[in-house]
Every structure is written in C-alpha cells, then in structure tokens.
Amino acid sequence: MRILVTNDDGIHAPGLTVLEEIANQLSDDVWVCAPSDNQTGAGHSLTLSMPVRLRKHSERRWSVTGTPTDAVSIGLKQVLDNPPDLILSGVNAGANLGDDITYSGTVSAAMEGALAGIKSIALSQVMKQERPAWEDRFAAAREWGPKAIQPLLDTPFEPRTLVSINFPCRAAQDVRGMRVVRQGFHDYDRGSVLEARDPRGQRYYWFGLDAIEHTPDHGTDLEAIAEGYASITPLQLDLTHHSSLTGLAQRFSG
Ligand code: MN
Fold first, then answer.
1. How far is the CA of 41 from the centre of ligand 1 (A)?
2. C-alpha of residue 252 to centroid of ligand 1, in Å
3. Would you say the C-alpha torsion 150, 156, 160, 161 has a positive or negative sign?
C-alpha cells in the first residue's frame, strides 16, 4: 500500500512527523509532499499568481512553496510515478471542527485527494494554547491515530467523499473512545481581531484563534470532542443543498 502524507503546517511541523510515524506503521511505501511553510487557514486555495517550486529533501520527502492543495496536486503529478492508495493529511496542530473545515488547509488537502479519486483522511489534534512545556501535544493522535485509520483501510469511500478525524486535547489514556458523528456548527464568532499600528504608523489587523465557548448540537463532532472522544466525520465535496433545489427552480421557472 502506497501512502502520500501531507499537511498544512509545513514540512518541518511536528504533527507531520507524528503522521509519518503512523503511516510507517501501516506501510513501507510512505511518501511525503507538504508545503514548505505554515499554510494554516489556506483552505482549498491553489497558487495561480506565482510559480511553485518543488524541493527534494530525500528520496520520498518533498516540499512545495505553495498551499496544501498545491502539495497534493504536485505530489500526484510530479513526485509519484504511480498514484497512492491512501492520502493522509495532518496531524494538524489544532482542531478542525464544525464549520472550521472550510478554512482548513488540512481538510482541503484531503479534499483534493478525494477529488483525484484517492481515499483521503484528514487528522487534527485539538490543542489548548497554554500548556506545560513538557507535554506531548500530539499524545492522543499518536496513540489513537492508528486505531482510527485501521478500520477505514478496508472501508470503501463513496466517490468525492473523505473522512476527517479530530483527537481530543487529553492524555492518550483519558480519551474515552471514538465516535462517528456529523459536522456541527460553532456559535458564530470569528474571535478577536487585534488592531495595532506598524512602525510607520499605518493601522493593521491580525486575526486571533481564540478558544470560543460553544453549545454543540447532539451527535456532532464538537460534542464528541467536548465529551472526550475522538470524532470521525465523513465529508462530501458536493456542497449542494439538495432539498432547496426544487423550491429554487420554481422561482426561476416561467
Ligand atoms: Mn494547520
């Protein structure tokens, strides 16, 4: 089984190393193609206005000066001679829960894989900003990652679907299990925007990524994580709201 590993935090991210270790437990044909820099929040963007450079770090480890989508696309087109059987994206340093997935470079890399017809799984580790320096931030993902991926290996995925997994911010032994749940929604609050002035006196803004309190719906990824479970959510690229089709078509008929 050939595995392509990517992420959105960049080729030097600790979470990528965690996922490479997990992939190496599953196969001896593991390849990496990841962005050269941190691309958190890149979503499903593609670099179109500048060239993308591909750098070889070792025989099976490559980086691209672009987005996670660039990395998957160039990995499939330029790095690998034969397509992989599986694409793993992550382990992201931070949650990708609820409506956050549309901002997520981690999930978008897996979306790109799904569009290419390859079984793709995104993995994210929920984190607190403040934590003891000695703590293994990826402890839950490290321990529970293989348990979450294993049942998916012989599960057929529908075309243009993918699976997103989040691990709770807990010690591995305190994770209560895994739940297959739907995507929830956050209470809408994009968090803080810091306003300050640059050295030349011009105003600038910087988005924060604060932890926001939520009231998660039952059966959602947000609820599973809040209760200490790893969440496993199947996602689809078809964003059509099917039940609105007929009503909307009537507005445009005649
Ligand atoms: Mn990230």
1. 7
2. 41
3. negative
Ligand 1 centroid distance, CA of 121 (Å): 15
Q: Using the mean position of ligand 1's atoms as its centre, give its distance from the Cα of residue 105 in Å.
A: 6
What would the CATH number be for the domain defined by 2-186+215-252?
3.40.1210.10
- Per residue in 168-215, pLDDT tens? 999 999 999 999 999 999 887 767 889 999 999 999 999 877 666 678
d(CA 125, CA 137): 8
Token representation of residue 29 = 């044909």
Q: Of how many residues is the chain composed?
A: 254
Going from N- to C-terminal start, the domains of the chain cover 2-186+215-252
Read off the pTM: 0.94
Cβ atoms within 10 Å, residue 149:
21
Q: According to the model, what pLDDT value does residue 237 have? A: 97
